[in-house]
Specification:
By secondary structure, the protein is of the alpha/beta class. The protein is built from 12 helices and 12 strands. Among the domains are: about 90 residues, no CATH class; about 100 residues, Periplasmic binding protein-like II (D-Maltodextrin-Binding Protein, domain 2), CATH 3.40.190.10. It is about 40% helix and about 20% strand. A 7-stranded mixed beta sheet has the order 1-2-12-3-10-4-11. The longest helix is centred in the C-terminal third of the chain and has 16 residues. The chain is globular.
């Protein structure tokens, strides 16, 4: 499995990281670590069989099959996907956007939103996720994952330090306000040619449910890893991130693919029926699974 060290998929990873099931799952899954944007590449090049991949990859990676049950999504404010710009500059007047490339799907959502902002051709400049450096080179910045959470935590300190008034737009909240559907970031997928049965769906859903039942433990673990308060971590995992791939999220995916094709960001893609079940075998060995964090 290829797991990312971000906070948001921590509940999905519970059984893979904690006893009593971690040892048993390790006999059937091999875990690696990578950035979210790499997960789909791993499935496409055959070095992983399963991945919690950014949904834009479904339109660009042939043969990916969605495994029902789990997602990383938001039905409102998410806090870990930000578009930050100077208050004096309206969105329609932004000339450049420094973009954290950790998630191609988030950048696709942002591109769609810029069509609604009346600034569809604004250039995105790939940059490392450092807000000060990004705003030195561009009119605005897109921050993804833990760097976005930390930027919000440091918002007051930054204003005291710089005196610069910034607007922190939550991209998931913006998407939901414009489209009236959830913002869906990632889903479990199996690579083309993988052999599926019911057990993998069971493994992932069970791990998610156990993770959501152990939020206090996750808060304690992650508060030692990130400079975030316990309450910030708890509310993020319980209120900001939605982990169930329900009908609302499926509709959100349909709208995303429709709008992305309409504005030319992604090729046309028809969301398939959610029928594949999943245990993956690869030449008799342990499945290699890409997980987004």
């Amino acid at each position: 499995m290829a797991a990312i060290g971000f906070l948001n998929p921590a509940p999905l990873m519970w059984d893979f990281d904690h006893p009593p099931l971690a040892a048993e799952l390790a006999t059937r899954y091999q875990v690696d670590s990578m950035m979210p944007s790499e997960c789909a590449d791993r499935l496409a090049n055959g070095t992983a069989d399963i991945g919690l991949v950014p949904i834009a990859a479904l339109a660009t990676t042939p043969g990916l099959r969605i495994i029902p049950g789990c997602t990383i999504a938001s039905k409102g404010r998410v806090r870990s996907l930000l578009l930050v710009h100077r208050a004096a500059q309206p969105l329609a007047a932004l000339r450049t956007v420094a973009a954290d490339t950790a998630s191609r799907t988030t950048l696709a959502y942002a591109r769609i939103l810029f069509h609604f902002y009346g600034n569809p051709a604004v250039p995105f400049i790939p940059m490392a996720a450092d807000l000060d450096t990004m705003l030195e080179r561009a009119s605005a910045a897109i921050l993804i994952g833990d760097p976005a959470l930390m930027a919000l935590e440091e918002r007051a300190n930054r204003f005291e330090r710089t005196g610069e008034e910034l607007v922190y737009l939550d991209l998931a909240e913006e998407w939901t306000a414009v489209m009236d559907v959830p913002f869906v970031s990632a889903v479990w997928c199996a690579a083309q040619g993988s052999i599926l049965d019911d057990s993998i769906e069971t493994d992932f859903i069970r791990s998610r449910d156990h993770g959501l039942a152990n939020i206090d433990t996750l808060v304690a673990e992650w508060s030692r890893k990130l400079p975030l308060s316990d309450e910030t971590i708890r509310s993020y995992l319980t209120s900001n991130i939605h982990y169930v791939l329900d009908e609302e999220c499926i509709e959100g995916m349909r709208v995303f693919f429709e709008k992305a094709a309409e504005v030319g960001i992604l090729p046309a893609y028809q969301l398939p029926p959610f029928v594949g079940r999943a245990h993956v075998t690869s030449n008799g060995g342990k499945p290699s699974v890409s997980m987004r964090a």
